[in-house]
Amino acid sequence: SQKIEQNSEALNIQEGKTATLTCNYTNYSPAYLQWYRQDPGRGPVFLLLIRENEKEKRKERLKVTFDTTLKQSLFHITASQPADSATYLCALGYNTDKLIFGTGTRLQVFP
Amino acid sequence: KAGVTQTPRYLIKTRGQQVTLSCSPISGHRSVSWYQQTPGQGLQFLFEYFSETQRNKGNFPGRFSGRQFSNSRSEMNVSTLELGDSALYLCASSLGTGLSYNEQFFGPGTRLTVL
Q1: How high does pLDDT run on average in chain A?
Q2: What residues in B contact A91, CB-CB < 8 Å?
Q3: Gap between the Cα atoms of B100 and A25, Å rounded
Q4: What would the pLDDT profile of A79-106 be if each residue is shown by its tens digit?
Q5: Between chain A and chain B, how many beta carbons pairs sit less than 8 Å apart?
Q6: B93/B78 Cα distance (integer angstroms)
Q7: DSSP H or E stretch at residue A73
Q8: Measured distance CA(A6)–CA(A22) in Å, rounded
Q9: From the list A32, A96, A99, which residue is nearest B45 (CB)?
Q10: Nearest beta carbon to residue B103 from set A31, A46, A102
Q11: What is the pLDDT of residue B65?
């Protein structure tokens, strides 16, 4: 079965630096890859979607890369702020109807 | 536009009881999905409904069931509750079907505790 790996340990970085979160998967490459942000006590919020034929996608301070050879997606937040502190989830989309979520990585940005 | 709403927000039940959770999607959204979130397993897909039909089902026992009404509102039912059912139950809606490529809009969740 498909396995998704996101760093279970929290990522701590200083304000202003670039945060890089990793999403690795085994077996089959997804057609789509989505990234979500989740704050404590709230539901996930969609951030970005990247397709398998796209290498990179950007939105404001966010950047996602997708490498089907390495079976990896990287999620970058540039000029990070304390307000970016949250758990970030990657989700792999297969065919049309299958979306599998990773367990998420907690990001802590300190001043 | 109002977001996805879920009721109740918190629920405490005892083993063996049953529970019904409710979800109202964003106006105009016809796809509603349900997920179970626990610290160890993360977000696990339960099922998806579109136009009152179940289109997808995850690997959960038959004690977990759902339905969708003509106004796209959805309910999820868990019968014969077990301790392991304690979790955050999240509902998500999207404009069209196609979980893999459609942005999912999540509600705040219902925190279920089974004693």
Answers
A1: 94
A2: 43
A3: 16
A4: 999 999 999 999 999 887 889 999 999 9
A5: 67
A6: 20
A7: strand A72-77
A8: 6
A9: A99
A10: A46
A11: 97
Mean pLDDT of all residues in B77-106: 94
Q: In a 3-state reduction of DSSP, which class is residue A84? A: helix
- Nearest alpha carbon to residue A14 among A86, A65, A84, A87: A84
For an interface test with B, the pick among A39, A101, A106 (most B C-beta atoms closer than 10 Å) comes out as A101
pLDDT per residue as tens digits for the range A20-47: 999 999 988 888 999 999 999 899 999 9
CB spacing of B45 vs A104 below 8 angstroms: no
Burial (Cβ within 10 Å: 0-12, 13-18, ≥19) of residue A90: buried
User: With contact defined as beta carbons under 8 Å apart, do B106 and A45 qualify?
Assistant: yes
State residue B39's pLDDT score. Answer: 87
B4 vs A contacts (CB less than 8 Å): 43
Q: Which residues of B touch A103 (CB under 8 A)?
A: 41-42
For A47, B47, B89, B106, the CA distances from B75, given in Å and listed in that order, are: 27, 11, 11, 15
Which runs of E-coded beta strand occur in B1-115?
5-7, 10-13, 19-24, 31-38, 42-50, 53-57, 64-68, 74-78, 87-94, 105-106, 110-114
Find all residues with CB under 8 Å of B59, minimum gap 6, and list them.
Answer: none
Structure-token pair, residue A78:
């540039």
* Sign, CA torsion B102/B30/A97/B80: positive
- In whole angstroms, give the CA distance from residue A85 to residue B94: 26
Q: Determine whether the interchain pair A93/B100 forms a contact, defined as Cβ–Cβ distance below 8 Å.
A: yes
* The two structure tokens encoding residue B108: 């705040």
